[in-house]
Amino acid sequence: xxxxxxxxxxxxxxxxxxxxxxxAILFSFLFPILLLALFSVIFGSxxxxxxxxxxxxxxxxLPGMLSAGVLLTSFQTMAMSITAERDDGTxxxxxxxxxxxxxxxxxxxxxxxxxxxxxxxxxxLVARVFFGVALPTTADRWAVFALVxxxxxxxxxxxxxAYSSMATVRTVGAVVIGPMLLLQFISxxxxxxxxxxxxxxxxxxxxxxxxxxxxxxxxxxxxxxASAEMAGAWETGRTALVLxxxxxxxxxxxxxxxxWFKRGTT
Amino acid sequence: MPDAITIRGLRKSYAxxxxxxxxxxxxxxxxxxxxxxxxxxGKTTTVEIAEGFRDRDAGEVRVLxxxxxxxxxxxxxxxxxxLQSTGGLDLLTPREALASTAKAYSHPRDVGxxxxxxxxxxxxxxxxxxxxxxQRRRLDxxxxxxxxxxxxxxxxxxxxxxxxxxxxxxxxIRALAVEGTTILLTTxxxxxxxxxxxxxGVIAGGRLLAVDTPEALGGRxxxxxxxxxxxxxxxxxxTTATPTAEVARLASRMPGGEVPSLTxxxxxxxxxxxxxxxxxxxxxxxxxxxxxxxxx
Lengths: 266, 296
Known about the structure:
The structure holds 2 protein chains of 2 kinds.
Chain A: H1 3-20, H2 22-29, H3 31-43, H4 57-87, H5 90-95, H6 101-131, H7 139-164, H8 172-186, H9 198-206, H10 208-220, H11 236-257
Chain B: E1 5-14, E2 17-27, E3 32-36, H1 43-50, E4 58-63, H2 73-76, E5 79-82, H3 94-102, H4 111-117, H5 133-145, E6 151-155, H6 163-178, E7 182-186, H7 190-196, E8 199-204, E9 207-212, E10 225-231, E11 234-240, H8 243-253, E12 263-265, H9 269-277
């Protein structure tokens, strides 16, 4: 079988395992959807709603939840699952077979592509149907969405794979979830980015999540809200550039640092 | 036919301490070879170098005619490896895990037949998480043989098995050997080596101390036998090179010609093995056998 065919087979296998892990489904796949529902219910009264200024709580939180979803299904899933697979000998067992290594990574990419696409579709559906969020109607907005989503998911995947080499199975929970939570708070995922102090905005601007969130806002927020951004504009070009740089950097890091065996066993 | 494995002057050190120190070993094509040795003897290091999982410091290694260090997927296609306990399959069924693994090989065995041969037909479509330790081990073996390897590495395959499961497992290994698969087995069970191996090698202090058939290892077939019996309520014994004559002499002087509580024993493989490795046990023999993890 070719590496591509084996990669497809690995994708199916990965999806089977992912869908059978209830914790993963709840805390990475459904989590942003649950949060969107929760925030809409809690903060619903603080927003004027579609009738006054055109913004509902659901609409306000949607870009953040989309960004959190990208981070969870790509970065977190990869970092945690590959750390576990390195620890329990899965990687060593795969390495003992004639499977081309690229098939393994294609399987991971296939898993992330499928799960994150399904998650985003579900999130948009829930936002539209249950919380009355108006979705963009112009093709250029959807094009920006596709670009930010694709670059974000790919970057998160390769960075998650690279990040897995820094963690052990004992530390991975803290090492992944801690920094991710911090990053989400300073990147404008859970709280408005213009409420974040400027120096923290600068810190957040180094990392891709801020750009994913900004890109998502540019798709789903009314144009006039661009003035609330750091640069007073959506900066679509710069967003694409920063995300692409992280994706390429992550890929290089991934190739340079990937280990099939856990520390101390080779 | 050339040997399946040829090792000459193999050396490997960890942090300056030699784990394998000039080891020579030949494993013939089609044989089942058991490698015995205490923990830290260099057994795991030697096997992992032959499996292509570790790089060596010095020496020549040929496995199926290829240097395993940096060997490609063509070589992996001919080698089966049953590692010590692996996990990560909990969410799959044995059939799913085997079918996916089989696809990587050019001439895999039929998944259904492999499941039958390891006795997992009844569990073929149950999640691996629900299998017993012995069943999981049999799945490990199934994963190792599904690619129809010419050479199979078995690392302590029956640790934790109950006696019946071990007997069943031995039958499976014998069947593979009959099909012509070369098998390199590492084990701590001397009876396992005695039952399965055409030849055994004893490794200690990073060197091969002896290689022979299980019956002849350490010259034990030529050693004197111990005859014990009971006479006037007292347990008595003597060692002799001619136990048959000794027993006949005893029988002639016993009333009724029956010798009470008679046994005739030669040193067991275990006795021979333990006396062989005695000088090396408890010495400072390092080996990176146990993973040492560093917090990130």
